[in-house]
Amino acid sequence: MTKVNIKKIPPGRLKITRSLKTLLGEKDFNSITTAEIAKTAGVTEGLIYKYFADKRDLLFKVLLELFEQFLLQMGKDLKGVEGSLNKLRSIMQTTLSWYDRQRVFTRILLVEVRNSPDFFKSEAYQQCVRNYSRIIMDIIHEGMDHGEIRKDIKPSVIRQVIQGSIEHVCLPAIIFHREIEVEPATEDLCRTIFMGIQQS
Amino acid sequence: MTKVNIKKIPPGRLKITRSLKTLLGEKDFNSITTAEIAKTAGVTEGLIYKYFADKRDLLFKVLLELFEQFLLQMGKDLKGVEGSLNKLRSIMQTTLSWYDRQRVFTRILLVEVRNSPDFFKSEAYQQCVRNYSRIIMDIIHEGMDHGEIRKDIKPSVIRQVIQGSIEHVCLPAIIFHREIEVEPATEDLCRTIFMGIQQS
DNA sequence: TCGATTAAGTAAGTGTTACTCACTTATTTA
DNA sequence: TAAATAAGTGAGTAACACTTACTTAATCGA
Questions:
Q1: What distance separates the 2 farthest-apart alpha carbons in chain B?
Q2: Of the options 1.10.10.60, 3.40.50.1100, 3.40.50.880, 3.40.630.30, the CATH number for the domain spanning B9-51
Q3: A76, A165, A188, B109: which has the fewest C-beta neighbours closer than 10 Å?
């Protein structure tokens, strides 16, 4: 259903998404003009609106594309991992590592789309972000069933702590173009979230 | 230094910030026009640019104003609280409660300013956000010195976990106009962050 | 293989909107 | 009270996202 339509993507459309991805490596979305996108792509401005509802919709489509690659990687890294906590660690590490290397993707996800109310209706959100969240939720439930994770906290809050922590660790790195130290950060995050900050 | 200049705020300027605050209760920042702000304020569009560098700068100034009130409240709630972990709990509860009731403030902070690179140069960021972060950092260091908080995690990561968790718990509530259940959420957050999710 | 239908791509707009600037009116202050 | 400064105006503009009527290329059934 989703992958069948690969056969016929018009070259112009490809050029446009590729162009935006390139430009997002240089400047932020708001200061990229549609004229610029078209010029870099080597097409006319009008063509953008043949394939995308508006400028933001184009952004969402680019995010969708990059997010699918990310989920693919996460699936690979998760294979063969045993134990709920280990699975959560794997997800955290993959995420941090991907965020560190895929700056364009991460900037779109963490800073560019947030203020668009209709992002939350977009495919990128509805299939990718929710899918990512669901995977984490399933692991948490599994962990509770197996006695690995305590049951006296709402699973959704645990999920939010995990996701929120990751985002907040990465945000300054993305904004100020700093490197993310994947392994140490993963270790710190896991130690905090798994065992708590309280001296025991 | 900061409070001395209260004496002479031009009425037009006050009308403008008040106008934006009102409008932000109805719609998101991007779909509010400068013409609209001026009309609601009862002034001309040009006056906005007498007091503010641009539309976003106006937003930053409004955030600054609201953030100062928030920090004041936090200081009050923190008075008389003993113990580092209790202080952190107090901050979390105050934050969640404020986020729940001050929707305009929270929406600006969590969704509207993020994508402006120059937000991070603004007064709102430089004095308020950093101040908020510093207060948390100080408590963490104090907690480590007093043996309340373990020393084998980077303090900055602990801070990021706390702030990130709060934001991620509140974000859906803000976006989808849902209520934040302050006490239960605080409890869940503290239990997670203080003691960890691992069944022991 | 032709003719017709659909898809890809173009070129020249247009309305909206953030922002400017030269100006007027009101308020201090010496 | 006159000069100087601050508050406020209003008409205008450039830039930009987006539209529309059109042309060119590809697809496909008969």
A1: 64
A2: 1.10.10.60
A3: A76
